[in-house]
What does this fold into?
Amino acid sequence: MSEGDERRAVTAPGGRGTSERPSERSSAVTVASPGRALAARFASGSRLSRYTLLAIGILIALGLPWFVYPPVALDIVIFALFAMALDLLLGYTGLLSFGHAAFFGSAAYVAGLVSLHLELPYPLAVLAGTVFAVLLAIPIGYLSVKRSGIYFAMVTLAFAQMVYYVANQWRSVTGGENGLQGVPRLFPGVDLRDPFYFYYAALPLLVIGVAIAWRTVHSPFGKVLVAIRDNPDRVRALGYPVAHYKLLAFVISAGLSGIAGSLYSLTHFFASLDAVDWSMSGKVVVITVLGGAGTLWGSVISSALIVILENRLSLAGFNGQEIVIGSIFVIVVLAFRRGIWGTIAYLLARWSRPPSASSSTPALAPEPAIGPTTPDAAEEPPAAPVDGRDPASHGR
It folds into this structure.
């Protein structure tokens, strides 16, 4: 066979024809270092990479109180779940809520009241706080999801301030400015006053919350949420009740916030107005955006960063914690617009591409600052419906 017969035309993604030997083409594609291959596996968002990250996260959570003061370690996991709850709205549904402190703080109060007056075991106290947060979220969410953008944020903030006012004025129940003090951690036959043991007692409940968030975003329901975030009019045209999906996402998010808030009051033996203050809503927004909206795992990294930094600054006697955290937030937003975890995933995706692909494949398009920034979220088609209908052929 002649040399000209060995060559064949290869159509590039841009539509141009190029000629190359089959052996040259195969060698160019297959040449990749083991590091690039491993990065490509994680950047692809495969099932193996997701379960590997999940196993690593569980191992870190199990060993955390051995290296970090147990109450601080529990705060890290609590605020990680709280940020994941907000991320269901912010990163996957496109709804920025400034009122999640209402669910976090109200659950903290209910769990504290159940433990103080009814003397029920801590799992039942957490369940009571979570149920109350869900019930509170139904009317608030029903009225809030009718708006979007900045109007949604302002409506949720207004409802949160109403909850703050009730908690401050209903002193016979909430204790007013003094809050609920001496909240016990009860469980038959077990002394949970030691924070080290309570960490492992509370960890299963937090893992359940993380599993609910994980399953939600990787389910057909989660795909519809992503589609609603990207193009709600198109989803509505396909026949999906957008308002109902938003409301359900809002209620799930509030329930996860309730788990976090209930365990927060049991961890610190008290529930105070700080848990329902607007600054708590702002704090969880910072944690979510800092880690990367639409990532879930970014909430864990940013929660650890913020909680440990606050603890170290407090021990050092520094009172300007908000200045330091705000400065870090501004730097991350300006320099890493995808957040910490989103930027790591983006760089891995670029580095994992073989050298031959970099010359023929256009550069990755910049992603929005708020949205799915990890391969887990990117692998889900933004407008893929749950019943298998093709959006492009639905109207035929």
Notes: The first strand starts at residue 8 and ends at 11. The radius of gyration is 24 Å. Residues 1-32, 357-384, 390-396 have pLDDT under 50 and may be disordered.
